[in-house]
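Troubleshooting entry. The earlier prediction with adenosine-5'-triphosphate gave an output that would not parse, so I re-checked the input for stray whitespace and re-submitted. Clean input:
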Amino acid sequence: MTDSTENSPEARPLDFIRQIIAEDLRTGKHQHPVTRFPPEPNGFLHIGHAKSICLNFGIAVENNSPCHMRFDDTNPSKEESAYVESIKKDVKWLGFDWGKNLFYASDYFDRLYDYAIQLIKLGKAYVCELSAEEIRIYRGTLTEPGKESPYRDRTIEENLDLFQRMKACEFAEGSRVLRAKIDMNSPNLNMRDPVIYRILKVAHHRTGDKWCIYPMYDYTHCLSDAIEGITHSLCTLEFEDHRPLYDWCLDTLKTACHPRQIEFARLNLTYTVMSKRKILQLVQGNYVAGWDDPRMLTISGLRRRGYPASAIRKFCADIGIGKKESWIDMSVLEGAVRDDLNETAPRAMAVLNPLKVIIDNYPQGQSEELEAQNHPQRPEMGSRTIPFSREIYIEREDFMEDPPKKFFRLGPGREVRLRYGYFIRCVAVVKDVATGEIAAIHCTYDPETRGGSAPDGRKVKGTIHWVSAAHAISCPIRLYDRLFLTENPDADKNVDFKEHLNPQSLTTLDTCMLEPSLSKAQPGESFQFERNGYFCADLIDYQPGAPVFNRTVTLKDSWTKTDK
Ligand code: ATP
Ligand code: MG
């Protein structure tokens, strides 16, 4: 279960939805709220869904009330059980529990059919034989009223007969639909006799071949909420125009429960696309390596990248719930991840771009164990030992042959501190004769400085990380950059969003040298590689003793311009 302080009323002011709920409880309109998270199982969940999950399940946690997990599975041509399973896994991983309240709209198909019969009997629904294209034309536009279908005034008996025959699969797909009879002159297009049932000769992942007619989303959604006794039906702003239809269905059918639909602004995040349809294009076109590619903003991608569930919940709490569309910068999400991992991730040393250092005055064949803190600010996380020997690796970037004044790391004649080790001073540089590149450097160490300080009080300005060459393990490390080069890849409707993909979004390093304790890293385990960022052992590419590491996030905000 989640940490309730993330969203506790003490910690932050109530958002407008929580205010409404608090008022409904105060006035006794409801004894407790009942919310739901209603995904369509047509893809994996993304960070936008996390906002909705944290809202709906968060309200349940705060009120000790139920939140239903309901699959709105009304479109069998796009839905699969594999998506159902991934969604359940993701919601659980985020830290939420629906208990016994797992539902499927498809469980209500019989009742929804009965409701449709009721609508027909009330003279509020009719079978229409216009084609999809004709229905669109007849609907009119925002500036022009719609035109009534020639089938609108069929008798109740005729409608009942035709609808039953639709159900009995007597008609071809697309030849007939059931429409609600509302108002073709309504200023709201959703109220112009919307289609509520269509013929689809497709097997459903749960009901098999039982049905060849399927209810439409809007019709199904409001009735499913009512059947389940949902008190507050929370959805994103684009459904605001659908609310009159939602209310019309429930009022016309006089359902015992009439949930209140409340809309909030969806999450928009820079440098990503957030529609399942677009994410599917990336997956199917092999632009990424599957739904859980660590560059993706899917929940499974973020998990594999090493984003902790607690950081995602904190991010959702921080951005809050409002009524106005806004864009959140990717750095806000990364900041939440950094803050979380800074507290919890053990430290370790890994050299991403190694340069060999030979310590001339350290005896050949000798080695020793140095003690290193697992988390300098949290002694309770303990310590480990790291081997030190005559040959070590440091980052290539930590040495400069001709360093500027402000470079406090290693250069000819200069002295630095090895983290948890000794002071070393550079005495010579070895170059590759053919390329002129620096092949190795020679140093001396001061045996008096074990543990990082000199008895004579002399100071060094830089401390660098390192690993012992003889003991280091070599693991592939994947560095990720943003998946898109532009803040809003969707902005220009005339340009395919895939044109904005960043060709350099993944770099795999395979000459990295890591301290030996990291061979024991378990899949999904996170570390701070000192000075290099937060990394996690990949969940999938893993063999005992040979992890592959993903960089979760850099140490600083690498998204700001100054760093790029
Ligand atoms: P997509 O547009 O990515 O396909 P969707 O809205 O069609 O998403 P659903 O499975 O219908 O996906 O969504 C389940 C719930 O998640 C809905 O209540 C929806 O409003 C909410 N949701 C989807 N995207 C976001 C988002 N970006 N921010 C907040 N809530 C979202
Ligand atoms: Mg949807």
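This one parsed fine. The mean pLDDT is 95.
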